[in-house]
Amino acid sequence: MSELSIEFNKDYTIQWWERLLDDEDAMNKWLSKLWNTEKNGFFGGLRSARKFTEEGSDLRATFCKIAKEEWRHSQVLHRILKARGITPVAEEQENSKYWPHVMKGVKDLKSVAAASAIGELLAAKRFEVIQQHPRTPKDILVFINQALPEEQGHFDSYAAIAGEAAMQNALQRHKEAIAIISGQAPK
Ligand SMILES: [Fe+2]
Ligand SMILES: [Fe+2]
Predict the structure, then answer these.
(1) What is the rounded CA–CA span in Å between residue 129 and residue 142?
(2) What is the number of the ligand closest to the CA of 154?
(3) CB 39, CB 90: distance < 8 Å
(4) What CATH number is given for 24-181 in this structure?
(5) What angle is formed at CA 1 by the lines to CA 167 and CA 161, rounded to 5 degrees?
(6) How far is the CA of 117 from the centre of ligand 2 (A)?
(7) Contact 35, 81 (CB under 8 A)
(8) In angstroms, what is the span from residue 5 Cα to ligand 1's centroid?
(9) Which pLDDT score is estimated for 126?
(10) Counting C-beta atoms within 10 Å of the first and last residue's C-beta, which end of the chain has fewer, N or C?
(11) CA of 62 to the centre of ligand 1 (A)
């Protein structure tokens, strides 16, 4: 996975994870939200593939391969939740203000790949914190061990398609979106 300088607060993420480790209800809520995000990643990936790539192309195959892996992630999470006695409902999941802002910059293949790359990078960085934490529950660790290398691979694929200029634009939108969700900019 190549390096990209991105605003990511590791200490904050460790503290966030420790709050979830001590609060089973909050943990299950987050797992449900992640299930929805992974599932939406599948549908969004297929939409982007249809919109921005040609049928039968290598690019179409790359987008579809990534989308299928997101679907598998959502299924693994669904099984984990079921074993925890929970059936998540998509309509009940929180909508973040972050992602719509990053996606506003999408207009073509390179910009959709760049926005997607940012999403994958942030997921990978968060998953790294979860993987390294000694108290991460076994069921979640099994998921993370499978999903982390795949999210890193998704980042590499998308970043290569996007190229440097589109990545810089997406990074700028990422910074603005962070400001919006932190309440530092008008919504
Ligand atoms: Fe995923
Ligand atoms: Fe991914």
Answers:
(1) 14
(2) 2
(3) yes
(4) 1.20.1260.10
(5) 40
(6) 9
(7) yes
(8) 21
(9) 96
(10) C
(11) 14
Tell me, in angstroms, the distance from the centre of ligand 1 to residue 117's CA.
12
According to DSSP, residue 96 is labeled P
Contact 170, 162 (CB under 8 A): yes
- The Cα–Cα gap between 4 and 32 comes to 29
When computed from its CA atoms, the radius of gyration of the chain, rounded to whole angstroms, is 16
Q: Which tokens sit at 72?
A: 């598998």
| Neighbouring C-alpha atoms within 13 Å toward the C-beta of 49 | 20
Under a CB-based contact definition with an 8 Å cutoff, are residues 84 and 28 in contact? yes
Euclidean distance between CA atoms 80 and 128, whole angstroms:
19
The amino acid present at 146, given as its one-letter code, is Q
pLDDT tens for residues 99-141? Answer: 899 998 899 999 999 999 999 999 999 999 999 999 999 999 9
Domain residues of the chain, as ranges? 24-181
Q: Which two tokens stand for residue 112?
A: 């959709």
